[in-house]
Predict the structure of Diaminobutyrate--2-oxoglutarate transaminase.
Amino acid sequence: MPVRARGLTIEGADGRRYLDCLSGAGALALGHNHPVVLEAVRRVLDSGAPLSVLDLATPVKDAFVTELFRTLPPGLADRARIQFCGPAGTDAVEAAFTLVRAATGRTGLLAFTGAYHGMTAGALAASGGAGDVGVARLPYPQDYRCPFGIGGPVGAELAARWTESLLDDPKSGVPLPAGMILEPVQGEGGVLPAPDDWLRRMRTITADRSVPLIADEIQTGVGRTGAFWAVGHSGITPDVMVLSKAIGGSLPLAVVVYRDDLDVWQPGAHAGTFRGNQLAMAAGAATLAYVRENGLAERAAALGSRMLSRLRRLQTELPCVGDVRGRGLMIGVELVDPEGENTGPGHGAPGASSAGVHGAIPSALEPVRAPRPADPELAAAVQRECLNRGLIVELGGRHAAVVRILPPLTISDEQAAAVLDRLSDAIAAAARHQQHHGRRRHHGQHHGPAPHIGRQP
């Protein structure tokens, strides 16, 4: 039960202090109660300005839009329009669907397996959570559990060719859609960074067929992945961006930013009562400016790379750690059953890493060893062990077996080391407990101490 918080730290009603690596599911780019956010909110409160104004222009709103547009991909910022909608990311997703359907006159959508775009009906359908025949789902490339059993650039190439075939085959049963929505890094899907070459390929495929590309930057935006917007890693310019979470500086705010030639919908085509939240706009503008002016995206890239490197050492020491992946300060650790049989698609075909996304596909691929089965029970145990050690983490992935780390971008090197120490201890303790209970049936084999990965020797 949290009662106070500052930065990375939450103080509970029990008097204990916890390191918060959930950060409001990524909404707290600067952590809890950052001084620049509090000051921005106080200024609005003390000014006597209205707090909710629907679509009216205000100095606070103008400052937010100016700061937001300063950070957008250059190819979009010069031609962008903005729509304020309801306060949650799922509202922005629904608004984006309404936008592209109005602009194209088409109704269908392309989305990707493992996606998460929100909890309203249209967003759920695009996330694979509802059976909407208007949504065609495509394979999202990944290495560890590649749907083609290959991984690497070859797996990404197969995923791209699948997409092309679906759109160009007159017998595919999928008419030309109103838009394609994708996450540059799948978050709830298990922290899966899209390959940059594949993203560029999706941009080309959609542009060549006049299909608007919607980038869901709700969780990846505002420096989280090591670039201000995750599409920046690949250099693509989407037609539409849906933004929420961190853009409100910890308060509810969501917007759709889109290219001006798509702006053919009627006024009021998508609205929301709380689209004029002045406190959120003030907090958001302060957050966007602070991240930009202090180079926090670059800081996330450097620190995230070091954290991934240390976690990968843990992967070599504990067989229950199946995969470590991420981008910037969006990190995932997938836990597996080390005694389970290898099932499902494999990864890392020999020679795959030397091929480009547009490269030739080998005529014959050697058998690839599949990963161990995901272990959601172990992941839940690790989450509990983390909490016992004063560390708050989230679970995600297809089987809820991925421990997700989303610290604020203001995390210090010392705090990052403490996070990794506690996480490694928690994984080792949970694995020992699971092995002990399982191995009572196997003559009680002994297991060594927990490895430490926090600080470099």
